[in-house]
Amino acid sequence: MLIIGCGPTGLTLAAQLAAFADVSVCIVDQRDGPLQVGQADGIACRTMEMFAAFGFAERVEKEAYWVNETVFWKPDPSTPRRIFRSGRIQDVEDGLSEFPHVILNQARVHDLYLDVMRHSPGALTPDYGRRLDDLRLPTSDGEPVVARFEGLEAGDGGGAGEMETVRARYVVGCDGARSAVRRFMGGALRGDSANQSWGVMDVLAVTDFPDIRFKAVVHSADEGNLLVIPREGGYMVRLYIELDQLRVDERVASREVTIERLIDAARRILAPYTLDVEEVVWWSVYEIGQRLCAKYDDVADDDTVVRLPRVFIAGDACHTHSPKAGLGMNVSMSDAFNLGWKLASVVRGQCRPQILPTYSSERRAVAKELIDFDREFAAMFSARPQSSDDEDGVDPAEFQRYFQQHGRFTAGTATRYGPSVLVGAGTNQHLATGFEIGMRFHSAPVVRLADAKPMHLGHVAKADGRWRLFAFADEVAPNAPGSRLAELCALLAADPRSPLLRYRSDDVDIDAVVDLRAVVQQGHQRLVIGEMPSILRPHKGRFGLVDYEKVFGPDRKAGQDIFEMRGVDRTVGALVVVRPDQHVGHVLPLDGFDELVDFFAGFMVPAGRYVAGA
Amino acid sequence: MLIIGCGPTGLTLAAQLAAFADVSVCIVDQRDGPLQVGQADGIACRTMEMFAAFGFAERVEKEAYWVNETVFWKPDPSTPRRIFRSGRIQDVEDGLSEFPHVILNQARVHDLYLDVMRHSPGALTPDYGRRLDDLRLPTSDGEPVVARFEGLEAGDGGGAGEMETVRARYVVGCDGARSAVRRFMGGALRGDSANQSWGVMDVLAVTDFPDIRFKAVVHSADEGNLLVIPREGGYMVRLYIELDQLRVDERVASREVTIERLIDAARRILAPYTLDVEEVVWWSVYEIGQRLCAKYDDVADDDTVVRLPRVFIAGDACHTHSPKAGLGMNVSMSDAFNLGWKLASVVRGQCRPQILPTYSSERRAVAKELIDFDREFAAMFSARPQSSDDEDGVDPAEFQRYFQQHGRFTAGTATRYGPSVLVGAGTNQHLATGFEIGMRFHSAPVVRLADAKPMHLGHVAKADGRWRLFAFADEVAPNAPGSRLAELCALLAADPRSPLLRYRSDDVDIDAVVDLRAVVQQGHQRLVIGEMPSILRPHKGRFGLVDYEKVFGPDRKAGQDIFEMRGVDRTVGALVVVRPDQHVGHVLPLDGFDELVDFFAGFMVPAGRYVAGA
Fold first, then answer.
1. ipTM given for this complex
2. Of A111, A131, B241, B501, which has the most beta carbons under 10 Å away?
């Protein structure tokens, strides 16, 4: 497999694929080494959940700036040339995620991914200094995709000008808004081209603006608008200034903007507060529009019945939008998290390649929503503030309300994948209303039965390519007669149609492909692990050691009962099927074994039936 | 400065000293490289707090086994040859610490310290493969301590047999129970020598003992006792077996004990449960007694008026005891945390060398308590369980009560340093009853004023050698007339006697030696950072940037008001003085500026007055 581009998208994909020693992956970039300073910085709650799956969320939590509240400033009605704080909201609503919304520079996120890749079974490192020169798409299923690279001066390859050819079954272009892969694929970004220009600067400054350590949206009467994004470390701050909103005599073509002009604009917007910039760490001006590619892979919608995709694009190669909502990097990484497990499972022979078109359909719908949101949000942001002179302007209070209403969207937790071979119908959604089909599995606190550890249930869902079954027990204790949970476990353990048995080869653990976990209603003090159904304490590995980490109970002591928090039916329980990208694939009744069998049969390949290249 | 020994004690000391680029440190060990498998494993809550000061608590939390509950098993009264679970207790009482009690192997703790050392200003790495051959104590203050080392075969030094001489102002022996430094110093461990022999094994086993993932204390009727300590990673378990408690025909000199005998003993104790050991990862037999060295430095008590210490010992070199309470490594690391900042501040000319004798007096008292506790605890642990045949035995329920009562002791949070030049009198303790003078600063949740970040107040106390003043505001808002907090701040900012001014040179930040933080009673939404006293938003560094991280408020949203939780007087407030090792040095009223001045004058050297070698 070939990944082109070492940005956050390419690295998320590479980190996911590096989890499999049996998947051969190559990741290349034009740059001569890892990124030093990055443009993107906002990390949404949902992205933190994904980082937890990769094992580095706690490091990001420790190092990052936390966006706890967002403040809004607007012109003082009595003295419009002075701004005042008009509102303050909690940035993320309570209970939306167990993680905060944070700010951390992109280069650091890259480093954390590179660490994961290096230490994964695949032991993957990027090849830098190679520019994609040609990409030949296959004309038949047996042919590989052929990519030709030119070695660049600063690369670690054979040297400047040297050509290398890579043959790969799948190629993914994570090569940004000017994607070469997209060009070779014949795709294009469509939409409003470069309708907004922005200036952005990371500065060390002395100011008496009191909210310099809050995310702040500042609308001035006549001088334009800016966004304050405090940075990690306590001192640096990022200011985004929308250049088109500057006064007419300040509006200049972005190529003529200087850092001095940007600083001056920021000072005028923040008046009456002072701003003395002591050091400019980084600055840039860019033009951006809301644009979207029609297809994220190389197969036209009409052709999917006869041909399956072999070349994909992800991230900025598919969609561009303004930085205001701080979503770009997050949506891009989610593209890769959606695609990674699908590619791995197809290459490894676990899933049929027919699942691959779901990548484009699922992720393009998300980008479409994002772009619609961004267009509306950007328009409100850019509109002149309402005043007695200008009644057509937008009331900043309205902008604040809009911002608040769309909090789930900007947190990345609103994404919902529509029904498909990988996402079941909502027939049994009522059994677990808080685990919405198609949306990410919303974690909640539990206590592990075997060692009383308080933890988050969702954190067992690592980025390891496995499906997970979370079986929430019915009212009968799992060690008592008539327990639906025990009956399901008996089928999963013994019926040859069981997804746990059917899709794994004999030489791997029972949970290697589908990982069953149970949540019982009783606390750990009232149940004995030895009385749990045997498949919930499976013997694993060379020594047949018992895995004690399959059963959980509610965290009653913390007053947090997962059954209540997530609307799980206490009488009959529920079976929540979770995809490798943490999205809920299905909700079924505990006695829905047949439906479970059918669901998995829709996309998985029974063990031993895999034909390479199929 | 010379540190001998790279165990947890030596590494804690080295990590603390590496924080100062201007302190020259050398750390040596006999071993040929970092430890691979370690004996110690328990990490008490208090130690986790210290790890937080070094910046790696969150990694230990992630990797370690969490001791959430401890279970007790004893002979079934009706069938004494079978054990049953007689009790279950929460391991750490609620609110004792923000950190859990965890288990992580010692080698991993070493790695984390080595990382800290490498990345500190001192960029310190150990010199391995050197054995202390001679240590010459100075006869006058002007002379150095002279240590001679012999290079060992496997070392990275000049080679086997090569001699090296190191001259150091201070030498610390962290070289274990058979300490060579102690021998050269003329000290000896006194107490019960080797009165207990223990077998310990880290195994991968299959068992139906239901509490194999809990810390378990198991008393059998006739087969002896054992301790189950689950290990990180979910599978490995450590079993401690007291050999003297085995049946007469099984009691053998420890040198004749084999791993097969240990496993057999464990199986008999755990009956009727089975235990199949699949792999022995590590095992050992050792004899241990409760022993203590009379002095932790090279100056006899009578001589302290004429001479100051130059050679110290810490950790196992000072005290040995049984592993039952899991305290050894923790007390040893705390020795080093107590000594490290004192040595650094003396060498750097900030404190007078007269503070050095407090190390021995403060830490020896702790070890004395530990040994008394251990003797009592060990006796109860080893006693035969009470039964109808043996009424003199100890009722395991009594043992359980004892264990519970001493939870604060085993968590390491009960340590209290007595009054000295570094610990004030309790005259004003009533102003902040939850910050007990001489005990560690008991952290509590707060919200940072400038960015609304919820955090733990105690976590601002890093292992950076600085003293901290936590000023808890009085009832008057800090921006209103008559605020005692504001008045204190004014004195601290301007009075030449202010500890913030008097002990720092002009070329460093205002908080370089004494770091002032304030906790106000109002939430962050009701106060503006710009209206805080200016010393609470100091300009720092080359650019004079504002440090916004000095002021905090209660975390009302979480329902956790630090004033209430720690018994701080809401009317008049309180000033809590915290030492660089996180122990409370003093509690004073906010208008106690003169007492504060006097307290610091008792041990600090005004800037510019330092005479090298004084």
1. 0.92
2. B241
